[in-house]
C-alpha cells in the first residue's frame, strides 16, 4: 500500500457528499480505501515498437462515394511473447484500421460481421442520420453486411468507432473492436503548420487497460469496480510495453481513451508542458498549454509535444480526478507508465504551433429553447433504465437545448450524446477550463460535478429511429444507463414505438 495519508484524507473529504447515497458504512469504506493500488511506473520494459494503426484503403465508386470495406472478425494476438490470446478485430486481429475522409465527402461502409455473433459498429462523435449511427438499432447479424452511407459535414476531428450492441458493448469493445475515424477539412489544413504526416509526426494513441491471465484477455470479466472493468496493464494501439520512434522535433499524439471504465490523467514523466490542440469534436480555438490532460472512456484529446534529440520520454497517467473517494473501485489512485517516446539522435525541424487554431461559433445560451436535467445514478438516467422500445426525449430539429447533467449516486460517470457535438457552458456554475472550450461529445462526471451542455440538433430527423445518450462507462451503459432521443421536423410527432429488438438482443448475456 503506497498512497499517502494526505491523499487518503483528500479523497475521503471529497467523497462526503456521496456516502449517504451509497449507504456504505465505515468498514466498507475503509476496505475500499485500503485496497491494492496498481502502480506500473518504472516497471514497464518498453520493448515493443508501436506504430500508427494502418490507414484503411478506400475507393471512389461511380456515384463519387468513398467506399470502405470493414470486416469484424475473430483473431488471436501474441500480446506477450509466446502467449496467444483470442481476440476480435476489424480487418485484422485486434483493433481496426484508421478511417480517414474529408468534410463534404460521402462515405459508404460495407461492414461485414464474421465475429460469430450479432454486433454493431457505431461512429462515435459523428453527425449523421440515426439509421446510419450503428447503435443498438442497427445490429448486424453474424454473417450479414451492413452498408451505412452519409455525407460528412463537421469540422476536422479525431473520432472513433466501436461496437454498440445492446447490453454487450463492454464485452465486444474489450475483445478488441475499435479504431480511429479522422476527419479532415480545409480549415485544419490552414491551421496548417500542425504536424500532419500520418504515422510520422501525427500518430493515434489508443490507450486501453487489460488484465492478462496467462497471456489471454478474458472478455467476460466485467466487474472490478463501481464503474466496471479495470485492467492492471496497458496497451497502446494493441501493443503491450510500447515505444514509439519520434523523428521530428514536435509530434502530434491523437489520444483516445478506448478503455471500458478507466480514467487517465496523462502527463510526461518530467512534467514538461505540451499543447492540447483539440478535444473530441475538433481543434480548440487556441492551443492550450498544460502539463496534464485527463480523459474519460470515449474522450479524445490531440496534443503536440516537443522532444529533444536522443531522449527517451515516458507518457504516464496518475491520480485522475475521479472524485469519488473509492480509490480502489474507480482506479483513482492507480499509476501507469503508458508509452515511451524514443527521439532519434537527429530530429527533423517542425514548424511552430499556430497561435490560433479554429473559429468555434459559440451557441448562445439565450438561443436554447429548452433545458433538461439528466441525473446519472444506480445504472439509470433520471430513474429510468434503457428500454429499446421507449423514446425518452424528443427534440426539435434546428433548435438548441441545454442539457444539465450530473452524477446522483456518489460514483463516477461520464455522459455521451450521439449525433451532436456540444459545448460546455459551465462546470459547477463556473466557466469551463480551456480543455473543454471546444467541441465535445463525451464528458467525465465525477460526483459533485454538474455540467451544463448546449447543443444544436440539425439536418436529420426521424420520428421512429432514435439516437442514444448514455454513460460511457461501458458496464453502466450495458446495465441500462442509457436513453433514447429522436429529432423531429416541424409537424412530426414521435412515431409508433421504436422497434423492440429480438429477445436475444435485449439482454446482456454471456456466451
Ligand atoms: Cu462511444 Cu454510444 O458510444
Ligand atoms: Cu457515440
Ligand atoms: Cu456511469
Kindly describe this structure.
There is one protein chain. With 511 residues, this protein is mostly beta strands. It is 10% helix and 40% strand. The protein contains eight helices and 35 strands. The model is unreliable at 1-34 and 503-511 (pLDDT under 50). It binds CU-O-CU linkage and copper (II) ion (CU) (2 copies). Residues 122, 124, 162, 164, 298, 416, 418, 468, 470, 472 line the site of CU-O-CU linkage. The site of one copper (II) ion has 6 residues, from loops.
Short recap of the structure:
It is built from eight helices and 35 strands.
Main pleated sheet: 7 strands, mixed
What is the CATH level 1 assignment of the largest domain? Mainly Beta
Structural class: mainly beta
| Share in helix | under 10%
Low-confidence stretches: 1-34, 503-511
Amino acid at each position: 500500500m503506497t498512497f499517502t495519508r494526505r491523499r487518503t484524507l483528500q479523497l475521503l473529504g471529497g467523497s462526503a457528499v456521496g456516502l449517504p447515497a451509497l449507504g456504505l458504512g465505515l468498514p466498507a469504506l475503509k476496505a475500499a480505501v485500503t485496497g491494492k493500488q496498481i502502480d506500473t511506473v518504472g516497471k514497464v520494459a518498453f520493448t515493443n515498437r508501436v506504430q500508427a494503426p494502418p490507414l484503411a484503403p478506400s475507393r471512389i465508386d461511380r456515384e463519387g462515394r468513398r467506399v470502405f470495406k470493414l470486416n469484424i472478425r475473430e483473431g488471436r494476438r501474441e500480446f506477450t511473447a509466446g502467449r496467444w490470446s483470442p481476440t476480435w478485430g476489424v480487418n485484422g486481429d485486434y483493433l481496426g484500421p484508421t478511417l480517414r475522409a474529408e468534410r463534404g465527402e460521402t462515405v459508404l461502409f460495407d461492414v461485414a460481421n464474421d465475429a460469430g455473433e450479432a454486433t454493431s459498429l457505431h461512429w462515435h462523435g459523428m453527425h449523421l442520420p440515426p439509421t446510419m449511427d450503428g447503435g443498438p438499432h442497427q445490429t448486424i447479424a453474424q454473417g450479414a453486411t451492413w452498408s451505412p452511407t452519409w455525407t460528412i459535414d463537421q469540422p476536422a476531428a479525431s473520432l472513433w468507432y466501436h461496437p454498440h450492441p445492446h447490453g454487450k458493448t463492454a464485452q465486444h469493445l474489450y475483445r478488441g473492436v475499435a479504431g480511429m475515424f479522422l476527419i479532415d477539412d480545409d480549415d485544419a489544413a490552414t491551421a496548417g503548420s500542425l504536424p500532419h504526416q500520418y504515422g510520422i509526426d501525427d500518430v493515434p494513441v489508443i490507450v486501453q487497460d487489460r488484465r492478462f491471465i496467462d497471456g489471454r484477455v478474458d472478455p467476460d470479466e466485467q466487474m472490478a469496480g463501481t464503474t466496471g472493468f479495470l485492467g492492471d496493464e496497458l496497451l497502446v494501439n494493441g501493443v503491450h510495453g510500447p515505444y514509439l520512434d519520434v523523428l521530428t522535433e514536435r509530434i502530434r499524439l491523437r489520444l483516445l481513451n478506448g478503455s471500458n471504465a478507466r480514467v487517465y490523467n496523462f502527463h510526461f514523466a518530467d512534467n514538461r508542458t505540451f499543447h492540447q490542440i483539440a478535444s473530441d469534436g475538433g481543434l480548440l480555438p487556441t492551443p492550450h498549454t498544460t502539463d496534464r490532460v485527463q480523459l474519460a472512456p470515449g474522450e479524445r484529446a490531440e496534443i503536440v509535444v516537443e522532444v529533444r534529440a536522443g531522449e527517451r520520454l515516458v507518457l504516464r497517467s496518475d491520480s485522475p480526478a475521479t472524485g469519488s473517494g473509492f480509490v480502489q473501485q474507480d482506479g483513482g489512485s492507480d499509476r501507469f507508465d503508458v508509452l515511451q517516446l524514443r527521439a532519434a539522435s537527429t530530429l527533423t525541424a517542425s514548424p511552430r504551433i499556430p497561435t490560433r487554431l479554429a473559429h468555434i461559433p459559440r451557441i448562445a445560451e439565450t438561443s436554447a429553447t429548452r433545458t433538461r436535467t439528466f441525473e446519472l445514478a444506480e445504472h439509470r438516467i433520471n430513474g429510468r433504465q434503457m428500454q429499446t422500445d421507449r423514446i425518452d426525449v424528443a427534440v426539435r430539429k434546428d433548435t438548441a437545448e441545454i442539457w444539465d447533467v450530473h452524477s446522483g449516486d456518489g460514483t463516477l460517470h461520464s455522459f455521451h450524446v450521439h449525433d451532436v457535438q456540444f459545448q460546455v457552458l459551465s462546470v459547477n456554475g463556473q466557466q469551463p477550463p480551456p480543455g473543454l472550450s471546444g467541441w465535445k461529445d463525451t464528458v467525465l462526471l465525477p460526483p459533485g460535478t454538474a455540467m451544463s451542455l448546449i447543443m444544436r440538433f440539425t439536418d436529420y430527423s426521424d420520428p421512429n429511429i432514435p439516437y442514444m445518450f448514455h454513460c460511457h462507462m461501458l458496464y453502466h451503459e450495458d446495465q441500462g444507463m442509457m436513453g433514447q432521443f429522436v429529432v423531429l421536423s416541424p409537424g412530426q410527432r414521435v412515431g409508433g414505438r421504436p422497434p423492440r429488438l429480438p429477445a436475444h438482443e435485449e439482454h446482456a448475456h454471456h456466451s
